Amino acid sequence: MYKRILVALENGRADATIVPHVTALARQMSAEVILLHVADGYAARYFDQLQLAESAEMREDRAYLERIAGEMRTAGLAVETQLALGNPPTEIVKIAAARECSLIAMTSHGHRWLADIFCGSTISHVRHHTTIPMLILKAEKRGR
Fold this sequence. Notes:
The chain is α/β, with parallel strands linked by helices. The chain has a single domain, classed as HUPs (Rossmann fold), CATH 3.40.50. It contains 6 helices and 5 strands; from the N terminus they run βαβααβαβααβ. A 5-stranded parallel sheet has the order 3-2-1-4-5, sandwiched between helices. The radius of gyration is 15 Å and the shape is globular. About 5% of the residues have low confidence.
């Protein structure tokens, strides 16, 4: 059913919610996993246009992806990593389609009211711009 799962990671606490679920699902489905983080800081957004050097944040994001991938590989999974640059929702949709993913896995922080109204949420954009099934888990709060 699921052959390639794209996991959108944010390099934060919410990732601890999605990674174990995807690890179990990918193992059960014998699916490949693509760990994706979209760097969206100034250097990332203007990297190509201004021919900027990779920022410390981008290097840290790449190392983070590789650390999570290593843990999943140790669990016996086929895992790739990809650090994208730019607008997270746009990049998630684009990469999931280009990589022919059969599932997009993400975490949700719940509604942030004004932020959602003015900026929209990543999940909302992705679900309205893809036909790929999505697994959305609410990020667990610390201390649970």
